[in-house]
Amino acid sequence: MSASESHEQPGSHEPVDPEDVPIIPADQRGFVFQLGAAALDGLRMARELYSVFVRTLYFMAYGRKEKGAFVQQIYEQGNNSVFFLTVFMGFFGMILVFQAGEQSKRIIPDLSLLGAQYLQLLVRDFAASIGALMLATRVGAGIAAEIGSMVVTEQVDALRMCAADPIEYLVVPRFKAGIVATTAVIIWSCLIAWLSGLLTAWSFFGVLPRTFANVSMVSVGDLVVGLTKCIAYGAAIPIVSSHSGLSTFGGSEGVGWATTRAVVNSSLAVIILNFFISAAGLILFPSK
Amino acid sequence: MSGGAVLGEDVNKKGLVERTGASFLRVSELVGGFAVMFARILSRVVPPRFDGRQLVVNLYKMGVKSIPIVAVTALFTGAIMVIQAAPLVQRYQAFGLIGWGAGFGTLREIGPLLTALMISGRVGANNAAELGTMSVTEQIDALRALAIDPIGYLVAPRFLAIVITLFCSTLFADFLALFGAAYSCGPLLGVEPRVFYNGVTSGLLTFGDVAHGLVKAVFFGAMIGLSSCYFGLNVSGGAPGVGRAVNATVVVSAASIFVLDYFISFLSA
What we know:
The complex is a heterodimer. By secondary structure, chain A is mainly alpha-helical. Chain A is built from eight helices and no strands. Chain A has one domain (67-283). In chain A, 77% of the residues lie in helices and 0% in strands. The model of chain A is unreliable at 1-13 (pLDDT under 50). Chain B is mainly alpha-helical. In chain B, 84% of the residues lie in helices and 0% in strands. In chain B, helix 5 (98-136) runs antiparallel to helix 7. The model of chain B is unreliable at 1-8 (pLDDT under 50). Chains A and B meet through helix 2, helix 3 and helix 8 of A and helix 1, helix 4, helix 5 and helix 10 of B.
C-alpha cells in the first residue's frame, strides 16, 4: 500500500487517469515491461482504493447524511441477497458435510466429532468467506453496474455540478450498509449451512442431531476471527466495487468492463483478506 | 428476491401468488432459454461448423489472460486450506496428514469451486458484457445481415473456449494450490514441504480425486458459457442493460455452480 503518498487532504485526491501512462510501441514491450506495467497498475489501483476508502471514512464522519439511503442500501444488499445466500449456503453445507463424512470414514470411522469440527470451520472461515464470495458477485456486480451506468450517463457529473460529492452521496451509504448487511446475512447463512449440514449428517451417516449440535470446539477466538472477517469483507466489497464503478469510461462496453472488474477485484479482495485474517487468527488465538 | 435481479422486472408491488407465479415463469423461461441455446451450440459443434480462428482468439483472451488471477487465487487458497486444517492437525499432532487434508479439500472441492467463481467473474462477466455491447449496438444484426451465423461465429467458439479454459485452469490451480499449501506449511506450522508432499502422495489421494475436480470443471464451464452467452445476447436497454446482463450472468453462474457442485459430489461419491 502506498499509504505514505496519500496524506493530503481527503477529497483533493483525484484518481490517476490510466490514459496518462507513456505508451511504448508494442514491439519494444518485453517481459520486464509487462511486469513493471502490472506492478505499476497494482500500485495505482491500491492507491486509488486507499483514496476512496479514506474519503469514505472522512465523509462518514463529517458529511451530510441522506435520509433513507442507508436503509435502502441495506435492503438492496441484505434483504435481496437473503434468498440467494440461503439456497447456496444450504447446498454448500450439504456438500461439505457429505464430503467430510465420506472422507473421514476412510480413516476414522467415528463421526461423533463431525458436527463440532464442522461448526468450528463454519464459524471461523467458510460461512464468512464463501458467503462473502457470493455477495461479492451479487452485491459487487450490482453496485458497479449501477454506479457505472450513472457515470456513463453523466449522472455523476451532474452530482458534482450540484456540489454533491459522489463519494459522499453514493459510496458512503453503500459502505455503511455493506458492513451491516454482510454481517447480518452471513450470520444467517452460517445458521442455514449448519442446519443443512445437520440434516445431511443425520440422513446419510446416521449422526443424531443431538450429537451433531456440539459447540464445544467453537472458542472465543473462532468467533472473533469470523466476525472480523464479516466486517472486513463487508467494508471491502462496496469500496472495491464503487471504485470500479466510478472509474468507468466509455459507453455500454465500459459498464461491462467495470462490472467485470468489480466482481474479480472484490473476489480477490475477499480471498486475500481471508488469508491475512486467518493467519492473524492462527497466531493470536493458538488452539489448545 | 434475487429472481427480481435476474430479469430486472419489478415484482415487489404485486401480491404473493402473483410474485410466486412470476418467478416460476421467469425461471422456466431461463431454463428453456438455456436449453435452446445449448442445443443450438451443440448443433454447431458436433459436425464442426464454427469459426476456428475465433476459438483461438477467445482461448487466448479467456485462458492465457486469466492465468495471473487463477495463480493468485490458487496460491492463497492453498495457504488458507493449510490454515484451516492447522488446528485439527495440531490437536492430534498428525502432521503427516496435513498433505492429505489440505490436498483432498483442494483437489475435490475448493480448487474447482474457487477457480470457477473467479473465471465466472472474469471471463463470464466479460463475455456477457462483450456480447451485450454487440447486441446493443446492433452488431449481431449486422452479422445476420451479412449471412454470418452469430451462433457459429460468436457463441459456439466462446462456449468451447470457456469450457477448455476452465478445465485447464482447474488443473493449473490444483497444482499451484498444492504448491502454495506446501510452502505455507513451513512458516505456519513448522512442517517441511517434503512431509506435505509425502502426505499428498501417500496413496490416500488418488487420480480419482483430481478427475472428480476436473469433471466438475467441465460442467461449471458449460454453465458459465451458457449463462454468459444467453444473457449477453438477450440484452435490452443500452448501457444499464449491459450492466444488468453482467449482473445476471454472475448471479446465475454462481448459483448453478453451487447446485451442480452438490449434485456431482453426491452422484459420484
